[in-house]
């Protein structure tokens, strides 16, 4: 039986997240494979893949903080907000001062409301926005609250009528980096889109532990589910009696470990469950034994 755990993939460009899952099903020898947090085909970098029981972690891991390196081009607008779309408008960015760019970046940092790209997987009346947009329909997407913890400009590179801005972004789940590029350009009055995106971290998992598909074909490295949970969530070790309660899906008294999932481990170090504290009790989100 295939070991339950996580595989940290360094996704190549031009592959969809689903393509990676299909490859990992073959490499891991099981169909029970999923991923946390979709990456667009253009993007590269950290894609967290779950195998067997670890697929039940993915929805919780998808909600963790993420870090990206990106290049945003000012002066050109596309219908997808990235380089894969069709150009819809151009405006010379030659007169844009770097100080204005830094001011625009500051306005997009912190707790903000963001309208997702028209070409996205957001559902509108039960249909994916990208399908409606590609059918020529105008899609009205509501702004959503996101948090951009840090938006650091690494370099500003003018050439001809465009400016390329290299940046590192640390953000909450649900943040569209291409929408940040669009909004930065719009705020400067010249338009903008994303030309390069690399995800360098998802929660505690970064490029230092990621493997390319070729490397995984040579050796499929699976992070055991217990280690994966201990790295990503607060840990609670319980007694043998409490472990019996958890195994049967019962609640435990809260210990004040805070909001969000908590990894619960038995006296022998075995992962038992993910639990969440609600008021005075901790209730199971997923039981693994």
TrEMBL record:
<keyword id="KW-0413">Isomerase</keyword>
<dbReference type="GO" id="GO:1990481">
    <property type="term" value="P:mRNA pseudouridine synthesis"/>
</dbReference>
<comment type="function">
    <text>Responsible for synthesis of pseudouridine from uracil-55 in the psi GC loop of transfer RNAs.</text>
</comment>
<dbReference type="InterPro" id="IPR020103">
    <property type="entry name" value="PsdUridine_synth_cat_dom_sf"/>
</dbReference>
<feature type="domain" description="tRNA pseudouridine synthase II TruB subfamily 2 C-terminal">
    <location>
        <begin position="233"/>
        <end position="288"/>
    </location>
</feature>
<feature type="domain" description="tRNA pseudouridylate synthase B C-terminal">
    <location>
        <begin position="178"/>
        <end position="221"/>
    </location>
</feature>
<dbReference type="InterPro" id="IPR032819">
    <property type="entry name" value="TruB_C"/>
</dbReference>
<dbReference type="InterPro" id="IPR015225">
    <property type="entry name" value="tRNA_psdUridine_synth_fam2_C"/>
</dbReference>
<dbReference type="InterPro" id="IPR002501">
    <property type="entry name" value="PsdUridine_synth_N"/>
</dbReference>
<protein>
    <recommendedName>
        <fullName>tRNA pseudouridine synthase B</fullName>
        <ecNumber>5.4.99.25</ecNumber>
    </recommendedName>
</protein>
<dbReference type="InterPro" id="IPR036974">
    <property type="entry name" value="PUA_sf"/>
</dbReference>
<dbReference type="GO" id="GO:0003723">
    <property type="term" value="F:RNA binding"/>
</dbReference>
<dbReference type="Pfam" id="PF09142">
    <property type="entry name" value="TruB_C"/>
</dbReference>
<dbReference type="Pfam" id="PF01509">
    <property type="entry name" value="TruB_N"/>
</dbReference>
<feature type="domain" description="Pseudouridine synthase II N-terminal">
    <location>
        <begin position="25"/>
        <end position="177"/>
    </location>
</feature>
<dbReference type="InterPro" id="IPR014780">
    <property type="entry name" value="tRNA_psdUridine_synth_TruB"/>
</dbReference>
<dbReference type="GO" id="GO:0160148">
    <property type="term" value="F:tRNA pseudouridine(55) synthase activity"/>
</dbReference>
<comment type="similarity">
    <text>Belongs to the pseudouridine synthase TruB family. Type 1 subfamily.</text>
</comment>
<dbReference type="InterPro" id="IPR015947">
    <property type="entry name" value="PUA-like_sf"/>
</dbReference>
<dbReference type="Pfam" id="PF16198">
    <property type="entry name" value="TruB_C_2"/>
</dbReference>
<feature type="active site" description="Nucleophile">
    <location>
        <position position="40"/>
    </location>
</feature>
<dbReference type="GO" id="GO:0031119">
    <property type="term" value="P:tRNA pseudouridine synthesis"/>
</dbReference>
<keyword id="KW-0819">tRNA processing</keyword>
